Structure formats: C-alpha cells, structure tokens
C-alpha cells in the first residue's frame, strides 16, 4: 500500500490552540495510509528578501520539511478576518527565493476552527488566495469551517459528537483522494 507523507501547519502559536486540538482529531480520523508530521512555524524570523542570497537554517529547514512531504494540510485560526501573521510569514519563507517555491504543485487542504459562528471562513479564503499564487493544488471541496466547542473536541483528538466525527472523517478521506489524484497527474519530485 502506498503511504503519503503529509506535512501539517498549525497556524496558531498559542500553547492552548484549539486548532492544534483540531489537528489531533484530523490525524486520528485520517485514512491509515496518510503519515503526518508537523511543520513548525514558531522559530522563523520575519521574512525579508535580504535573506534570499543566504537563507538562514530556519528557512532551509522549513523548505526541506515541505519538500519532503507529498502534501500539506493547513489547520488555522482566523486573526482579524485573515491569516495569522506567523502562518503568512512561513508561507513567505517557503515560497522564496523567487523560482524556488516549495509549494509549487503540492496537494494542499485548508481547514480551521473558531469559537465564533463563521469558523475561520474569512481566514481560509485569504489563505486560499495566497496558496493559489503559490501554485499549490488545493482541495476546494468539501469546505470545513469548524465551530469549536471543548465539549465536542477533546484534547487528545477524540470527538464526542458523531455527526462532527463523520464529517471530519469524510473530509480527511476526500483529502487522501485529492492527494492521489494530484500526484497521479503531476508527481512531485523530492527536493523540487
């Protein structure tokens, strides 16, 4: 059986991130042939093109983590109706220097949780726009704007509401199919 290596980003730097809890649930519900590793974003300096000629170790490690992945999953909160700054900074690092975009042709999915009613809808739309420019191959449906409740999403990734669990299981199954479809048509080269 083919195994796909999925790098995932948690857009929040908070130690109490509800999106980290959501990421645990997604990993728990994912098909067995998806292998996950977190791509950390907290240690990156702010991106500047001044670094393009000599990328620091943090930037090279980020790019290597993405390039060693078959696909990426973004699990992000919404800050001020947009993408958290740390996540945008990581995307800027990964997509540069010009001509060395680590997101080029990579299968990608976007999801997020919020305690608010719109469940990160605007952040996801902002993120999708940035990923389009980066030429990532995005899964456009199903969309998943998760209203987070600690009674439903337990710290260990357990979900107590069956219909929510089934929806997220189906989301991850569709993501797996998306990865296969994209990589069948356009195989990624390691280190590309």
TrEMBL record:
Cited Pfam families: FMN_red
Top-level taxon in the UniProt lineage: Bacteria
Domain NADPH-dependent FMN reductase-like: 5-148
InterPro entries reported in the protein's UniProt record: FMN_Rdtase-like_dom, NAD(P)H-dep_reductase
This protein's name: NAD(P)H-dependent oxidoreductase
Organism whose genome encodes this protein: Microbacterium resistens
């Amino acid at each position: 059986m083919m195994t796909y290596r999925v790098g995932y980003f948690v857009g929040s730097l908070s130690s109490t991130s509800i999106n980290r809890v959501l990421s645990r649930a997604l990993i728990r519900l994912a098909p067995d042939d998806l292998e996950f590793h977190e791509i950390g974003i907290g240690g990156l300096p702010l991106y500047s093109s001044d670094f393009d000629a000599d990328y620091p170790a943090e930037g090279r490690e980020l790019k290597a983590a993405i390039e060693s992945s078959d696909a990426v999953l973004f699990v992000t909160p919404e800050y001020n109706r947009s993408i958290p700054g740390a996540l945008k900074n990581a995307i800027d690092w990964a997509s540069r220097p010009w001509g060395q975009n680590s997101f080029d042709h990579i299968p990608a999915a976007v999801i997020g949780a919020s305690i608010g009613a719109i469940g990160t809808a605007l952040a996801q739309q902002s993120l999708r726009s940035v990923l389009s420019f980066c030429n990532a191959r995005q899964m456009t449906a199903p969309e998943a704007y998760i209203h987070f409740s600690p009674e439903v999403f337990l710290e260990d990734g357990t979900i107590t509401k069956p219909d929510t669990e089934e929806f997220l299981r189906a989301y991850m199954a569709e993501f797996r199919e998306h990865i296969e479809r994209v990589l069948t048509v356009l195989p990624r080269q390691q280190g590309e």
